[in-house]
Write a structure and sequence with these properties.
By secondary structure, the protein is α/β, with parallel strands linked by helices. The protein has helices spanning about 5-20, 50-55, 80-90, 110-120, 135-150, 170-190, 205-215, 235-240, 265-270, 290-295, 360-400, 430-435, 470-485, 490-495, and strands at about 160-165, 200, 220-225, 245-250, 280, 305-310, 325-330, 340, 350, 400-405, 415-420, 445, 455-460.
Amino acid sequence: MPDDGKAGKLAKDKLFLSEIQTYPPDVTCDATAKRGSVVEGMENIKMDESAVDEVTASVYGSRFAAQELPQHEMPDQEMPKEIAYRLIRDDLTLDGNPILNLASFVTTYMEEEAEKLMAEALPKNFIDYEEYPQTAEIQNRCVSMIARMFNAPTSDDASAMGTSTVGSSEAIMLGVLAMKRRWQNKRKAEGKDSSKPNMVMNSAVQVCWEKAARYFEIEERYCYCTEERYVIDPTEAVSLVDENTIGICAIMGTTYTGEYEDVKAINDLLVENNIDCGIHVDAASAGFVAPFVVPDLAWDFRLEKVISINVSGHKYGLVYPGVGWVVWRSPEYLPKELVFNINYLGADQSSFTLNFSRSSSQVIGQYYQMIRLGKRGYRAIMMNLTRTADHLAACLKQLGFIIISKGQGQGLPLVAFHLDPKLGHHYDEFAVAHQLRERGWVVPAYTMAPHSEDLKIMRVVIREDMSRSRCDTLVKDIKLAVETLNSMDKKSIEDHRV
């Protein structure tokens, strides 16, 4: 027999639900509706009751799973947070696996404790020094540690001159601006023309150098690579310097082959010839490698002509994307007029950045890594990466590839290589890279810098999470890719790539 009490309750619930469902959608108890919408157009939005499936169904049983994700216009109505999270996460599965992306120098692994600290710092606006003074203090600690790592002539208790950035691109922009303004001030003081600045650099520079030159109207003077040399030639570089040269760019770890340019040779030639021209060292990649792998190599502030250095914290500094650093030899190399003083955040503070508001997370992550690992920890990691790179180079050489990157710590922990032209392959490096994609690996194939662009090469960047075991798996897949291509005719390879 049915329970009369329960039956009565069900009847009342049904009546209540029917009253809600039949309530006119344009009727509201909100008095503000009678006065019109605060924002024009908002009155046209239907504030319908949530459908039952939004609450009770699974993500893929909800109506949202049967709809296309918004692409061009913000939707009128909200969706449950769990559904939004899952649908976006599903969309992102179409991205590649960052760990298998061997084209990138950017960090793909950090410890859980570092991730927690960075997540907690996300809401903090780094630029607000008054509200977050300890975060500003942590940035200053990082600047001091990095400046001393680069042998800046700073006393034990003195603060170094530098700042954090969102990456080496911004750091380079700031370094170039400082060099240009210092040169302009000098020329004006001498009563000379200051309208035609130029800058000397290798043709293999990262694109941010080209951007800096064009954005700030500086003539680019290139020391071009050759088929045998992929770094700057010190003698040629110094010969390009004239009275309008604001500085020379020297790269510690080129993007193409990972080689270190001879900063000391450039410095010595400038000194010997009594040329008043500074050097900015682009140590975006090597800044956290060379000091620990080849500590006796002179490339930093130990050389008197080196006036500024940039480094990426999110490369071998071992922090997730979004942090770089630039440091100067001393305050005289950063003209005061480039530093802005503001007080509209609650206190007087100085600002020398191209960006303004940003999260404190990456700066906190950098500080964590530096005190967590210390010099010994960084050295252990960088030495392991160097050994792994040497192992990969030896394996690829056994497979018949030509290695053009430097090993034994004389360059970045990466391997740049190409097919041996003597073997007469009917495919190129781009075909090998395409074949590796089928296994999930992203190994870039590209042409060399201007004047050596006939050479096609491939490059594998060895990052912190590239273990020896994973490296061996990569070698097996490269061997399989070559065997597969050898078994295909030229037309099949071209059709396959299309």
